[in-house]
Amino acid sequence: MRRRYAAARGCGRLRVLTQFASRLRWGPLESRRARGLVRLHDVLARTGFHARYWIFLGLLLGCMRGGAPIRWDLDSDFAFLDRDLPQFLSALTALRHDGFDLRPLQINNDGRTTKWALRHEGVKYEFFQLDVRGTMLRWHFHRRHPSLEFVNEIPAHGLASFELYGRRFMIPDNPEQQLALLYGDWRTPHPGYAYWRDCRATVARHAWTGVRHTPPPA
What we know:
Elements: H1 2-26, H2 29-44, E1 53-55, H3 57-66, E2 75-81, H4 85-97, E3 101-102, E4 105-106, E5 115-120, E6 123-133, E7 136-143, E8 148-155, E9 159-164, E10 167-172, H5 175-183, H6 195-198, E11 202-207, E12 212-213
Parallel strand pairs: 2-6
Antiparallel strand pairs: 1-2, 3-5, 4-12, 5-6, 6-7, 7-8, 8-11, 9-10
Helix pairs in contact: 3-5
């Protein structure tokens, strides 16, 4: 148990140091994130993945509550449907060639990768694959300390357009209902919220027996 907590504290200290170095190199988080989201949008707009992905989770929460990402959030979350995986993988190559660094992949217990994370100027951009299961959409999330896999579901939905930093992104066509399913009272900030512990869309959790895989160079 003590080793687990020590590992978690070590990860926290590393994140602080990484962000300090990123700020010195590239400037404040909000500026880096805005530049990254615009760049990501423009790269993907030139691919077959354009308009096949949408703003998700914490990024959706910030946009709906305040019109922009949550000020301190280091991750920008997106989602896409399993049927669009080929288009995403092709677009992933374009992002990597444009300076987005692909992080180690987390492999599900069933042997699949269903979330990809990229980093640009110290900000992460995460893409969750949502599997269509009847009238529900399912995605997976992993926690390393302790090693757990979470299965989450929300009702299927359509898409609508949302302007962010002068670009048109897609969002769910029922954002308020979706946020209520995920966060409950989403309009009130909850600084202690932990996705792995508090997400209301989690339908199952179990030991994660998958692995982390370092991708080859772009």
